[in-house]
Design brief:
Blueprint: H1 7-17, H2 22-29, H3 33-41, H4 48-58, H5 62-71, H6 89-101, E1 107-110, E2 116-119, H7 124-127, H8 141-146, H9 158-176, H10 179-189, E3 207-213, E4 216-226, H11 233-237, E5 239-245, H12 248-260
Antiparallel strand pairs: 1-2, 1-5, 3-4, 4-5
Helix pairs in contact: 1-3, 2-3, 9-10
């Protein structure tokens, strides 16, 4: 891992993303505002414990905490391994059990860039009819959902879905500083009218999707779960998307599909 920016500059950037003043951060971290100032200007090099303490208060993702540690001259402490790593076999099995346990309704796991990691068989309703180019691994579920050659033509409420997903993707890109997420947002925003820029509404806890599938209109509600207590970068970045039937017809469709299988 390499880094050419000082830790103080990176911490200041994260503080700005959280819209905190130095005093705000000092109060949250229970240190002096003078110390925060000295860290940000490079007059003080924080210990590894202080880097992690400030990163926790700023809500910095584990991957970026490693970057902060390296910038301060310390060794990274969070491991970064693919989900198929033997050491993560138990975690992978747990994720698979969650997805299988949600059947007959769709459930899938994605990484921080919305690339598909695991899915149950019911996710086929989202993949059906998509351009094969969009189905080449790694399948990006955000792209698949909003691309005109993907799911978008079958969405009966595509503008509502775009209005829900794009602001969240923009917020995620801005919060993480990930250039690939910025690029993904620009690509998908170009496919239609850009929604009004606004932060995600915390009261919008679920996305309702109306989807045409094999002559039936399905109505699904989407929820997202993350592993809040993870201490591994891979697990920290996994999100599980679970879909629930929002009406009797949709519930009947998936139950019938299950019985037929």
């Amino acid at each position: 891992m390499t880094n050419d920016r000082p830790v103080g500059e990176l911490l200041r950037e994260w503080r700005h993303r959280g819209r905190l003043s130095q005093l705000d951060l000092a109060i949250h971290a229970e240190v002096s505002a003078r110390h925060i100032s000295f860290v940000e200007t490079g007059r003080t090099i924080p210990s590894s414990a202080m880097v992690l303490h400030l990163a926790e208060r700023l809500g910095v993702p584990l991957r970026e905490r490693n970057r902060l540690l390296v910038a301060a001259g310390h060794a990274p402490v969070f491991r970064d391994r693919p989900l198929d790593d033997p050491d993560l076999a138990r975690a992978r099995e747990t994720v698979q059990q969650v997805l299988l346990g949600h059947e007959p309704y769709p459930a899938l796991a994605v990484d921080r860039r919305w690339n598909l990691l695991l899915a149950n068989s019911s996710v086929e309703v989202f993949l059906h009819g998509a351009d094969p180019a969009l189905l080449r691994p790694p399948i990006n579920m955000m792209r698949l959902g909003l691309h005109p050659d993907g799911l978008a033509p079958r969405l009966r409420n595509v503008e509502q879905v775009r209005g829900y997903l794009l602001p969240r993707l923009a917020h995620q890109a801005a919060r993480s500083g990930d250039p690939q997420l910025h690029s993904l947002y620009e690509e998908l925003a170009a496919f239609g009218p850009e929604p009004e820029p606004r932060p995600p509404d915390p009261t919008e806890i679920a996305l309702r999707i109306r989807l045409a599938h094999r002559g039936t209109e399905l109505c699904l509600v989407n929820t997202v779960t993350t592993f809040g207590a993870a201490f591994d970068i891979t697990l920290d970045e996994i999100a599980i998307e679970a879909y629930f039937p929002a009406d009797v017809e949709t519930r009947r469709f998936f139950r019938t599909r299950q019985n037929a299988g």
